[in-house]
Amino acid sequence: MRHVIFGGDGFVGRHLAPKLIADGEQVIVADIVKSDLPHYGKAKFVHCDVTDPASVAAVGMKKTDMVYNLSAKMLSPLQVRAKRHDFFYPVNYHGTVHIIEAMDKVGARKLVHFTTDMIYGHTVTTPMTEDHPVSPLGEYGQSKQDTEVVAQQWRERGMNITLCRPRLIIGPGRLGILEKLFKLIDRNLPVPMIGSGKNPYQFISVFDCAEAARLAWKAGVPNEAYNLGSLNPPPVKKLLGDLINHAGSKSILIPTPGWAVKRTLDLLDRMNMPLMDPEQYLIADEECVLDVSKGKRDLGWVPQYRDEDMLIAAYKEYRANKDGHVVAAANHVPAE
Fold first, then answer.
1. pLDDT, position 330
2. Domain 2-170+202-229+288-304 in CATH: superfamily?
3. pTM here?
């Protein structure tokens, strides 16, 4: 079978493509950039800008193709309020529409599409299952939720679309907002927490995301949504404390009144001086833990990587980059 991965040169795609190749599958990577990745010896690269429907059509999908949409604009780099809609929607929403419409024209019917857990907004019930109420807190989450509405419309027209809703994805090659944290720790500065730090914080490994996409294909592309998150996430205070100890830093964790910090960040956001995106800080002290048992039941997917190990691996990569060294791509340690 032929597999077409939109956004395949990006974070999850560069781990999904080798998995499919190892399965003996034919892989086409459709992306706006091409990196120097070893799997291009066996995968074909096609330049594609998902914001341009003609560019998507030119990828040349076929009726029997298995399609993945991993293309997205993320919360990093940070955007001011006025620019968020125009930053997220062309790729996240319109790009998804262009891909699905191009699939429809050739009769392709199988899509794995990545959205986000940020469609849920504030925690209503915990742990969050896939039927948790949906109420995005900003343009990023809303752009992804709007694609889920589109996906449902096309399911009703005969497509099979599996939706993956990951927590914050971390792994080799992406630091994002974590870089700010690592700089504080490196400089032995205090690390403020939004709230007491007693609530858990959940990541998901890029490797586990790639495996979820592969298993969704293997399972026949169910018309379902799946949460992607780690198992047994630790409290923020322990997660950060372990990292500080690993780094040998003199940083101390500072609990803060969550409501006061959020109002301050709201004010800075309104002044076009954001320190964090509202979709990040508004839920920072909440019990935002995804229930991932549905993925195990339906797909046989079980996350293999621990939050503590993922964060330390990201810090090691940050340090290696600063010191001019290269970190191996598989430096995460699977959970026992």
1. 42
2. NAD(P)-binding Rossmann-like Domain (3.40.50.720)
3. 0.93
